Amino acid sequence: MKKQIDKDYHLHIFHAKQCDPKKCTGKKMARFDLARIFDKVQKIPRGSILLDPMAKQALSPADKNEQNITVLDCSWETVEEVFPQLMRLRLQHRALPYLVATNPVNFGRPFKLTSVEAFAAALYILGNKKQAENILSKFNWGHVFLDMNKEPLEDYSKAKDSNEIIKIQDEYM
What we know:
Elements: E1 10-15, H1 25-31, E2 36-38, E3 49-51, E4 68-73, H2 79-82, E5 92-94, H3 115-125, H4 129-136, H5 142-148, H6 150-157, H7 162-172
Helix pairs in contact: 3-4
GO molecular function, one term: rRNA small subunit aminocarboxypropyltransferase activity
Binding site for S-adenosyl-L-methionine: 25, 72, 96, 115
Family: Belongs to the TDD superfamily. TSR3 family.
């Protein structure tokens, strides 16, 4: 029996230049060559999964065949203004299910994830736990995210589709 090898996803960040550069997880990921940063919307790979908190469909293991995952790195105060600008692109908008942030700015707050936490959650749900652990390893608080959210992430990673993700999420909310 062959051992299944996790495929690495290509991680992309559309950087809106609104965050504190010292606290920006996206910029740190780029410095470690873990993600590519774009400052132009047109550079986002077409068909990419865009992690969008306002998407009508939840990310699920059914999305695992896509190779590219994109996050928008912007201030939470302007997210409702910025995401609609991306609607005209051919991207697969997906919302992450209920998870709790462990970053120093939003510790303990549900849904208020940094770029690296969002990527790690997506990777875990899509079945690449090693890549999720790797990107979080660059942050001294990174392991806490997986520890604190282990049970829901495990459940989400076993779901078959978006509808099942929503049912599982309801159990945690």
